[in-house]
Amino acid sequence: AGAVRGDVVRTWYATHGNAGRRAEVVTIFLVDRAIGMFTLVLMPLLVLPFFAEIRSVPAVQALALAAGVVLALMLGGLMVVLSDRLYRSTLVTWAFERLPFGGIAAQAVNAIRVFRNAKGTLATACGISLVAQALTIAVTIVVARPVLGDAFNPSVLVLVPLGFLANAIPATPGGLGVGETAFDRLFRLGGLSQGAAVLIGWRILMLVPSAFGLVIYLRGRRQFVTTTNAVDV
Q1: Could you tell me which residues come within 8 angstroms of residue 187 by beta carbon, excluding any fewer than 6 positions away?
Q2: Fewest CB atoms less than 10 Å from the CB: which of 31, 128, 138, 232?
Q3: Inter-CA distances, 221 with 25, 60, 215, 225, Å
C-alpha cells in the first residue's frame, strides 16, 4: 500500500500539464509496477529448485504454485494485449467505442502495444528489475546473518524471496505486520526463528537510502512549485 501511494505521487507529477495523455502515463507506471511484480514472483521460483528440503514443505509448495499461476496469468494477459488478431476483432473494437471508459482503455492498450516492437526493452527492464530484487535479497541476507547467528543456514536464500512476495500484499502500508508475520512463519518452516526481526532489521536499514530520497524529493518539489508558480504568473 505504501508503494501504491508512491505511485500516486509519481503519477501526479508525470501527468501535470499532460491532461490529454494521462491514460498513457498511468499505463507506463502500471507496466513498471507489473515488471517489478513479475520479477518479484519469479525470484523465489528461480532459487527454490536448489533447496529440496524447503521445497518439500506443503506451505512452500502452495506458495510456489500460486506464484506460478500468477506468472502464467501475467504472461497470458500480455500476449492477449499484444495480439493483433484480438486487438482488431469486432468485439474489442465495439468495446472501445461503446463501453464506458472505452476510450481510456484504448489509450492504455495502445500504450502497452508499443512494446510489440520493443521486446528488447521489456527484457532489459526485467533484467534490471531482477538485479534490483537480487540486491534487496542480498541486503536482507546480510541483515539475517548477525540476527540468526549460528542458526544461519543457506535455506535463508529461498525463505527471504518468499517472504518479500508475501510482504508485497497491499493489506497494510508498506506491508507492515503482514511481512513480519510472513517472514516469521516462513523461517519457522525452515527450522529458524527471528524471521520478523530480520525483516524489521531490513526496514531500519532501508531508512538510510530513503532519507536521501526524501531530501531529493523535497528539493525537487520546491523547484517544481517555484517553476509552476512562475509559469502561472
Answers
A1: 159, 163, 193, 194, 195, 198
A2: 232
A3: 20, 44, 10, 6
